[in-house]
Task: structure prediction
Amino acid sequence: MNIPKNLKYTKSHEWVKFDGETTATVGLTDYAQSELGDLVFVNLPEAGDTVTAGEAFSDVESVKAVSDVYAPVTGTVDEANAELLDAPEKINADPYEAWLVKIEDITSMEELLTAEEYEKFVEEEKAQKH
Amino acid sequence: MEKKTPLYEVHAAMGGKIVPFAGWLLPVQYETGVIQEHMAVRTKCGLFDVSHMGEILLAGPDSVKNLNRILTNDYTVMEDGQARYSPMCYENGGCVDDLIVYRRGENDYFIVVNAANKDKDFQWIKEHLTGDVTCRDISDEIGQIALQGPLAETVLRKICAEKFIPEKYYHAVFHAEAGGIPCTVSRTGYTGEDGFELYCAAEDTVNLWNCLMEAGKENGIIPCGLGARDTLRLEAAMPLYGHEMDSTVSPLETGLSFAVKMKKEDFIGKQAMEKADPPKRERTGLKVTGRGIVREKSELKKDGKTVGYTTSGTHAPFLGYPIAMALTERGALKPGDRVSADVRGREVECEVVPLPFYRRKK
Result:
């Protein structure tokens, strides 16, 4: 389970990389992509759309099921990763390279976890399942 | 409390992602993932644990009489080792289950039923037997492994003598041996590829699995889970009980008339099917042309009017696009028509296509 130390995480398995205080890049964690399985569709918001912390702003569809992706922060979409629309499998192959959106004008955020806290959270989730 | 097949520990050790299914714990996929597992079966070979399926023995001089009355297909002309598929219906024509019957000998039959319906099926059969015949549920004594793909025979030949390998599809060799393990080798499957389903004593299942994995190593064999089992059968347009048919759908409504012999004197459901002739619904194939996967129970509209609903749907790894099967108003759709499917409140466009979606090259 890959959990880079320089990122922040949410309990809904998104990663966040801050660039200053008001800009961030968001993606899905390694745990998320492995739970979802082979992704075949990604629906992304458009530049200019507002996202709200704790609310779904995107969804990803694997062979098995569809899952909402939740915004860790409140702000405006600066850019969506259009490459993923035709190649959603990049999220499975490299979850920390295959960012979903870049958000700017961040005004608030959810409770974010450090890499250590997220690792513990994932271990607890896995233990509950088995 | 879900049950474990004899191969449970093997799946866990091989990195299988275990999920509950029909009262059993089985791998939905391994680390390879559904798409790779699906493609392995289409291009090389894959191995499936299907031990959860139910097995029922039927024996006695009145066996055929009972099969012909309880099932819709006709069992009067069968060779030893031959298998025949049939729906099993209620008086009202709806389906109890679909199953496969093997003739082991003149008064000796081996019936394979869906895991989810095993107890229901056994009760139903038992309650409807008449005359000199008995039935026995041997499901817990039997393990089953499916070896499927174009290289399936190549792999099997390494551990199984030629005389034990059935030449024809829907035939089996009972009292065979593979890797020194007594088993039944059946040339059947649920993938649309050439392949085999091997039945053995429950306690021999792990050994048989390991033998097959070893034999297939250089041919690229990988273990495959329930996820790939579903995507494979859907590409091959094979029906799944609970989806394409259930207690409210008759086999004539869902493209299974080839397995319903109306010329038989009588069988459970015949009268209801005669009354409902022609059937009001039919099975249709859809190719998703819009964005998204159309799964089951999605409402279908043509020119704004509801024409039916989907019964199964998924991304088809070999074809490269999502597909679905549906139960639609008879005559409402023809190949080439555009319909829209409701997917979580969004309209996704589909094109009606002929079935099956995929057919293997002979």
Remarks:
- The mean pLDDT of chain B is 97.
- The two ends of chain B are 43 Å apart (CA to CA).
- The first strand of chain B starts at residue 3 and ends at 4.
